[in-house]
Amino acid sequence: MNPLxxxxxxxxxxxxxxxxxxxxxxxxxxxxxxxxxxxxPCGVCLPCRKAAAGVHPDLIxxxxxxxxxxxxxxxxxxxxxxLYVRPNEGRRKVYLIDPADALNPxxxxxxxxxxxxxxxxxxxxxxxxxxGLLLDTIRSRCEQLTLPPEEExxxxxxxxxxxxxxxxxxxxxxxxxxEGLAALEQEKLSGGQLLDLxxxxEGQAAQALAIxxxxxxxxxxxxxQCRDSGVYHPGGGHLLGALAAxxxx
Length: 249
Prior knowledge:
The protein is α/β, with parallel strands linked by helices. The protein is built from ten helices and five strands; from the N terminus they run E-H-H-E-H-E-H-E-H-E-H-H-H-H-H. Helix 4 (105-117) links the parallel strand 3 and strand 4 (122-127). The longest helix is centred in the C-terminal third of the chain and has 18 residues, at 213-230.
């Protein structure tokens, strides 16, 4: 879980990660502003639970209106007017703008005034997958928090294909391996796809080290060597040919 800042600023630009991870992180930040527990965000006090349920009156979300892709200037002006209505239940009022890069240029200009001139109790959370679309002046008024990239979930088909390749290399004789690799070459995988497949097969083959240590070690070594050489972008045929040669040469 990504740690929160030790002290809270009046405005953050949350980037990186995925839309879901940015949203989850921003919710924790919002709870930290609104929390009434001893160590915010406690997650169990009434304000934290209200924020998580989306019913806290001092957590205001700004998103594109239904059927629209942009956040318009009227929405930004409405936010500015709401700024001067004091918080309903706590000491802070939090405006969560998601995605901030949906703000059109007039809306960004209107928001800039809110960031510069808003009352001390106002906090702003801008979420963006494309922060370059925001005005430099908006970015400069926010502290930027960049979440790490998320690992994509494994593709089940890729896992199955990698397992079949590992099994072929572990159990097949030289002819069977040559025929299997020739069939794989006919699939016309891109360089990146082929390297990913070899990485999956290497991981699968490593699991057999305790069962057939000599053959498994040779397979893992051959796959790693081919992946390392694949950095220099040889063709798929050359890469697979090198794999067979390293395994049976």
